[in-house]
Amino acid sequence: MPKYTVKSPVKHDGKRYGVGEKITLKVEDAERLLENGAVEDDRDSAADRKAAEKAAAERKAAEEADAAAQAEAARKAAEESAPKPD
């Protein structure tokens, strides 16, 4: 059975679950709670986290590549403007 994270207090099978707690539900039991936002499917939130981590890594790589290109351009400009030995 899938696991869910409680987003607002839930009472299920006589037990109360607080915000942030994990709850295991049958899919048919979870449908109503998912629709009203009381629980969140952990598989969805894991996929969202993975996508956000990938996007952050791609941004960091692009920033590092841009910084390296700027450093190389500055090095070449300094090299070209340096006095040439006679």
What does this structure look like?
By secondary structure, the chain is an alpha+beta fold. The chain has a domain at 3-42. It contains two helices and five strands. The strands form two sheets. The chain has a three-stranded antiparallel beta sheet. Strand 2 and strand 3 form a beta hairpin. The longest helix is centred in the last third of the chain and has 40 residues, at 42-81. It is rod-shaped. The model has no long low-confidence stretch (mean pLDDT 87).
Per DSSP E runs of 2 or more residues, the count of β-strands stands at 5
Strand order of the largest sheet: 4-1-5
Question: How many whole angstroms does the radius of gyration measure?
Answer: 26 Å
Count, helices: 2
Poorly predicted residue ranges: none
Helix content: 55-70%
What percentage of the residues does DSSP assign to strands (E)? Answer: 15-25%
Principal-axis shape equals: rod-shaped
Biggest sheet architecture: 3 strands, antiparallel
The structure class reads: alpha+beta
Order of helices and strands: EEEEHEH
Oligomer: single chain
Mean pLDDT: 87
**Between the first and last Cα atoms, what is the distance in angstroms?**
80 Å
